[in-house]
Amino acid sequence: TTSVLAVVGVGGYILIVVLWGTRNAARSVIGELRERTWDFQRLSAIRPMSMTFGKLFGATSYVWFGGAITLLMAAPGILEQRPGEEGYATLGLMVSAGLLGHAAAMSSALFAARRRRADARVAIFPHQLVGLIAAILPIWLHSTGAVRDAVAGLVGYELPRVDWYGLSYGDTTFVFLTTAMFALWAMIGCWRLMRLELMASNAPIVWPAFLVFLIFYLAGYAGVFVPGLALAYVGLAAAAIVAALVEPKNHVELRAFGAAVAGGRLGESAQRAPAYVWAFAFAAVVAIFVASQGKFRVGVQNVYPHVWIAALGFLARDIGVFLYFHSNPRQNRGDFASVIALLVLNFVLWGIALTTHSDVIVSLFRPMSDAPALTAVLPWIEAAAVLGLALQRFRKTPAAAPDVRAAAPA
Fold this sequence. Notes:
two-stranded antiparallel ribbon; single chain
């Protein structure tokens, strides 16, 4: 009986908290955009913290009532099948995954608001889908043991538990703690985005702090300092690409940021720097440090210093692709064009290049361990070309009216 109730309870929790909850969280903002009442709320006297928690938890309050009932149904069966720490961690994982999904869906909706997609055609489902992925991913990692398998591939041997900075965790416990930490960061992100929507300025603190946390979190998997930082670089590069995709590419703000950098005004430069610039700067520091340590081994493969210099050049090129397709204000689908271009560059053309068996051609798309000179130089030539084209198009584009909500990055 308890096992049947556990299955029904978990299924009901996913339907109510994950599926319905992420929709409500996204609709709390998208619904206002559709009904053209968002600007009235932005001009209200409600404080950003109150607005954030009102929408994040108020819009999902009924969902959590249903979630509590389904958890009570599932708890006896889960604790019977997974006694002790693993059972309680499973219940905690379900709650934290729901919170992460709701915060991710609302964050996605707030990014849509920042990009001024305020019309009746704004769809809820894409933002709900972001929340669904964020909520289901940790549950999938737990159910498949993917975290333990990934760590085993990194260190070269299988571990019965997840080893993080020398501390041993059960895989369920570790996924629960990780999900809870990222859910907290996602809620903080909602608050920072809401501050921008309510025309309050943000100091450049939270996003850099998250990047530091990301380095600390990812470096702990390897158990060895340099391979850990190499893994952290991958996370920082991913953060830079995601930020380049979702951040508004406002011409006025980009010009103001460039002027602050050219004028040597460090405080203003830090305040105006887009999130992807911060992520790239952190990635550059990590990549240069890792490259300075010489050759090292990850699993069963040797990694050479020039690979990190090349990887940083490819990251600069990919960010330049986003800037290029947004350098023309008439480009209404710059993100779509950028994603397609990156897929073609990093997968289609790379696959074609492999068939040529030419070091020069392959080095245009992937770092090569046995061609250090080409690998270190060619990506930066590509990055300079793409960024130069983007800058040229920006200079030819007349300045648009500033977006007061983009006055400071989240």
